[in-house]
Specification:
Layout: E1 6-13, H1 18-40, E2 48-56, E3 59-67, E4 73-75, E5 81-83, H2 86-99, E6 102-103, E7 106-107, E8 112-119, H3 122-135, E9 144-151, H4 160-178, E10 186-199, E11 202-215, H5 222-237, E12 242-250, E13 266-267, H6 272-275, H7 296-313, E14 319-326, E15 335-339, H8 348-358, H9 363-370, H10 404-412
Parallel strand pairs: 3-8, 11-12
Antiparallel strand pairs: 1-10, 2-3, 2-13, 4-5, 6-7, 9-14, 10-11, 14-15
Helix pairs in contact: 1-2, 4-5, 7-9, 8-10
């Protein structure tokens, strides 16, 4: 039997964290290729991207495999088509500028940006493309396991600790960029951590709050930073009470002036638990950023979240974990696993059967149902891929709850 009284902690990191800078740049590459495909009439289904980014002191390196529209290519000395780095460098600089880096050690204008992208491996392409000829749908871009999760702890059906950790940093980032008052003296690099006490399985109060944020004023110490950030933390926590004896750890080491990639190197894909459920649910291991959606690391994780959220929204369970597994070049998942954590109103087997009836879980089916062949990924790179509001551009389509009625009907059938 699961515990009902306990403490649980999750962390988030801001868009200016070195790893998140790299996630953002990698996802800007994804968006750039989808935008260029749309603009030039190239079939977006043919887009392939697996871009990785490294950032350190005034240096950005972008590497990986891509299949891009001809307008993003140039001829080398031998007359062979190769990647034209110009547009990719510009995308990286725009991302760094939007995040807010204009430091001596990391500046959007002065950082050297190396683009080492090359054409996609023919062997990988064959596994995805040729499978469509053999089985009617494109095959998965890799093997792997993907998890989705939802619970009724917050309005967006996310675990409370990660939900509020994200909220704190998003509010601070918005305030910092507004340029008003002392909060404008904060830097882009920050981390939050929230511990929630659960009573009878429900979030009751916050007992520990940790925030480390870069600041541009060298004279600031911990007490000054707390004075600036505390109102935003309280606003972010909303109706969730802060315990009377809550411990606050605000910039516990004192000063935090040198931050971002100048203070610590960053890499794409190093914050996968921040990206998902803050440790409250399993993660299959694959990162999301920098990948097109033939990569089931990304698309199937989105679908698993979509399914889990709709199951909880349909009140078929209070909590739901879903696992999907795939093999490279094979269209349909090898397995579907549902765990309702003893909160289900129906059995796991009924849910698994209903899922198979109502939705196509091949990469083609996922991409089509969630409408994923779009430039919608840069905004996913910070503050979590889940529990977000959908946009008019079709972003965060996996957060919709339009599957509630079909699920209920399929379970009854």
């Amino acid at each position: 039997m699961s515990r009902s009284n306990y403490y649980f902690t999750s962390e988030s990191v801001s868009e200016g964290h070195p790893d998140k800078v790299c996630d953002r740049i990698s996802d800007e590459i994804v968006d750039l290729v989808y935008k260029e495909a749309r603009k030039t009439g190239v079939d977006p289904w043919s887009v392939r991207i697996a871009a990785e980014t490294l950032a350190t002191t005034n240096r950005v390196v972008i590497a990986g495999e891509v299949r891009v529209p001809p307008t993003l290519l140039k001829k080398d000395k031998a007359g062979k088509d190769v990647i034209n780095p110009t547009r990719f460098r510009s995308a990286a600089r725009r991302a760094i500028r939007d995040i807010g880096y204009e430091q001596d050690g990391f500046h959007w204008k002065n950082a050297k940006v190396d683009v080492l992208l090359h054409s996609q491996s023919a062997d990988i392409a064959q596994g995805v493309d040729n499978a469509a000829d053999q089985q009617g749908d494109e095959g998965a871009g890799d093997q792997g396991i993907m998890f989705g999760y939802a619970c009724n702890e917050t309005p967006d059906l996310m675990p409370a600790p990660i939900y509020y950790s994200h909220q704190i940093l998003r509010l601070l980032a918005d305030a910092r960029k507004s340029g008003e008052g002392d909060v404008a003296r904060l830097g882009p690099d920050s981390k939050s951590q929230v511990t929630v006490r659960y009573v009878d399985g429900k979030p009751a109060e916050v007992t520990q709050i940790v925030l480390s944020t870069q600041h541009l004023d060298d004279s600031w110490e911990s007490h000054k930073v707390r004075e600036v950030v505390e109102p935003y933390i309280r606003e972010a926590l909303g109706d969730l009470p802060i315990a009377a004896d809550c411990n606050w750890y605000i910039n516990p080491t004192g000063k935090f002036v040198i931050g971002g990639p100048d203070g610590d190197a960053g890499l794409t894909g190093r914050k996968i638990i921040v990206d998902t459920y803050g440790g409250a649910a399993p993660h299959g291991g694959g990162a999301f950023s920098g990948k097109d959606t033939t990569k089931v690391d990304r698309s199937a994780a989105y679908m698993a979240r979509y399914l889990a959220k709709n199951i909880v929204a349909a009140k078929l369970a209070d909590r739901c974990t879903i696992q999907l597994s795939y093999a490279i070049g094979v269209a349909q998942p090898l397995s579907i696993y549902v765990n309702l954590h003893k909160t289900g109103k129906v059995s796991e087997e009924q849910i698994e059967g209903a899922i198979r009836k109502i939705i196509d879980l091949s990469p083609t089916g996922i991409r089509r149902h969630l409408d994923l062949n779009k430039p919608i990924y840069a905004k996913t790179a910070a503050y979590g891929h889940f529990g977000r509001k959908g946009g008019r551009d079709g972003s965060f389509s996996w957060e919709k709850t339009d599957l509630v009625k079909p699920l209920k009907e399929a379970v009854k059938a």
